[in-house]
Amino acid sequence: MKVKTPEQLKNIDIFHPYILIIAILLFIIVSIPIVYFSNELPQPSPYLYLYILIGILFFILGCLFPKILAKVSKKFKNKLVAIKSIKTKKLTKIPLLSTYRPKELILIGIVILGIVFQIINLIYLGGIPLFSGVLKAQAATKLWLFSYIFFIIGINLLLANYDRKTNYILLIIGLFLFVLTGYRTTPIAILLSVFITLYYSKNIKIKYQLIFIAIISILLILIGFIAIQSIEWQQWRLNAFELISYRAGFTLNILDKATRLAGSTNGTLFYYTLTGFFKATDPRVLVGSAVLNQSKSITATIFGPAILDFGTLAMGIQMFLIGLILKLLHILQKHIKQIATAFYGIILGQTLIWIETGPTDIVVWIFYLIGISIIIYYFYKLKVGKGSIELNTVNESNKAKVNYDSNKANSDGD
């Protein structure tokens, strides 16, 4: 077996959409100690893993679909070749005291707006939700939601376009404020998305990648442990590491039960997810009611809600579409950069979190809708002629023109 050199390892694309499969397998592995080597939780049915396998296969099919489509559609193949031929300006370092560009100031304003909304939200709550179960239950206000949308979009676009050291101060401030809300998913999503954005825009060194992974892991463990210990009506005897395994095992058990109740919610989970801005009903509470007959907020993995709503086929279609959208965005971000990279980071980071929480967040569907709009925009605006390509881009130069040889170009969709 040939061992890869450090240079070869550096060139591995660790945030290819297939990382979702690795993350799903890691989630299952994390659950093993508590599920199979303790009496804390029952062992799920072996058929559970068949459903997970079906979901993964549909996801792979979605990732491969652009490649398949390129083989049967010359027009689509030429679009892919055209995208791969685009040369965009690389991210450049900006001197500390250099003048701010108008677009940069707008993005900084969006980030600061998100920070201000979160500060107001914490003041309105009258305390720190991280240390109070009561406040945590009240923290997810509309103000919190808008602050999160503004901050995560703004910070990723800012870092994808402008490499200015002072921008990282805004990242740290915002991250700290979202940690105080007591929710694990939002600070982890912020860090994951920024990690992915910087990975593609800056080609960050391996040592910094390891630092990011370490910070994400520590936050995941500490926030979850502190928050759950602060819930006044619950008493836990598990340590921080056992708690991570317990949550994974419990969620897999919920998915196991959901597979036996396929179609039982008749689309209500999806309905209340899409109407999350206007209705107070939490889709995860509906999951708890359907699976456990309890009005508790329960997660059912990335597969569970679709199975509960419409059955196994719906889960397969969902995973196919997730794979397709992520793959098309992955192709775009490698060549378009900037906005495509930022939203690929946001959407992939949120999808990785969905492995546990499930697609029951309206905000993530909004990000997916923006991602689809980006895909349609670039594929529609890309004009392929005889020997030339024209594209109206978001770069400072509004039109990039390159020559290509469609017979020699690689159109495998990677």
Helix fraction bin: 55-70%
Estimated share of beta-strand residues: under 5%
Whole-angstrom Rg = 22 Å
| Low confidence ranges | 385-413
- Order of strands across the biggest sheet? 1-2-3
User: First CA to last CA: what distance?
Assistant: 25 Å
Number of contiguous helices: 17
Describe the structure.
- The protein has 17 helices and three strands.
- It has 414 residues and is mainly α.
- A three-stranded antiparallel sheet has the order 1-2-3, with helices on one face.
- β2 and β3 (399-403) form a beta hairpin.
- α12 packs antiparallel against α13.
- The two termini are 25 Å apart.
- The relative contact order is 0.15.
- Mean pLDDT is 83; it is low at 385-413.
Quick description:
The chain has 414 residues and is mainly α.
Secondary structure: elements and pairs:
Layout: H1 6-10, H2 19-36, H3 47-72, H4 74-85, H5 102-125, H6 133-138, H7 142-161, H8 167-180, H9 185-201, H10 206-229, H11 240-259, H12 268-274, H13 283-292, H14 304-310, H15 312-335, H16 339-357, H17 362-381, E1 383-384, E2 388-392, E3 399-403
Antiparallel strand pairs: 1-2, 2-3
Tag the structure with descriptive keywords:
414 residues, mainly alpha, 66% helix, three-stranded antiparallel β-sheet, globular
